[in-house]
């Protein structure tokens, strides 16, 4: 692969990891399967996902105000039922449980939003959610790497076939 193609591939890894619900722990293994190098894929994918989660936590008050203005008063009553359910989960598992399990089910961005909204401090939320994103990204990357190695296709990523 030439340098320009490789650069665009890594930019795509960064951008897709930064988009909510795509998540680094899904994009990084796809990048490895596609034939990109493992360590740069992990670093770049984590950087994209972690950056947007940090921005979300940093600007959480502005996001809450925007959501409240957009939804209006009538949907606030419906949200109270959801909020009660989320509050029960929060009381049962706390910040660590929600931060570790949440990204697998609703994504890291929504998990960080819920953690801060339900009473977690910004600093602890950042530590727990970023740790969780890193943990799951590394776990899935190792599984993808060794899965490809077991198949013997590590040198033959499917992206390379398109550009050769």
Q: Could you explain how this protein is built, in words?
A:
This protein is mainly α and 164 residues long. The protein is 84% helix and 0% strand. It has helices at 3-18, 24-33, 38-58, 60-71, 74-106, 108-117, 122-151, 158-163. Helix 1 (3-18) packs antiparallel against helix 2, helix 2 (24-33) packs antiparallel against helix 3 (38-58) and helix 5 crosses helix 6. The model is unreliable at 160-164 (pLDDT under 50).
Count of helix runs: 8
Largest sheet: none
Distance between the termini: 7 Å
Number of strands: 0
Helix content: over 70%
- SSE pattern: HHHHHHHH
Low-confidence stretches: 160-164
What is the beta-strand fraction? under 5%
Structural class: mainly alpha
Assembly state of the chains shown: single chain
Radius of gyration: 18 Å
The average pLDDT value, as a whole number, equals: 84
Global outline: elongated
């Amino acid at each position: 692969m030439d340098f320009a193609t490789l650069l665009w591939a890594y930019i795509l890894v960064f951008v897709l990891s930064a988009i909510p619900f795509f998540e680094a722990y899904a994009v990084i293994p796809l990048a490895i399967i596609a034939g990109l190098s493992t360590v740069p894929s992990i670093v770049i994918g984590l950087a994209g996902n972690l950056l947007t989660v940090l921005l979300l936590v940093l600007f959480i008050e502005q996001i809450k105000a925007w959501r409240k203005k957009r939804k209006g008063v009538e949907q606030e009553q419906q949200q109270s039922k959801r909020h009660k359910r989320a509050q029960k989960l929060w009381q049962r598992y706390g910040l660590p449980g929600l931060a570790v399990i949440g990204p697998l089910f609703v994504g890291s961005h929504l998990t960080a939003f819920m953690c801060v909204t339900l009473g977690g401090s910004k600093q602890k939320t950042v530590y727990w959610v970023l740790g969780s994103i890193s943990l799951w990204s590394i776990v899935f990357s190792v599984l993808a790497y060794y899965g490809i190695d077991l198949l013997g296709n590590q040198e033959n990523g499917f992206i390379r076939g398109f550009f050769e």
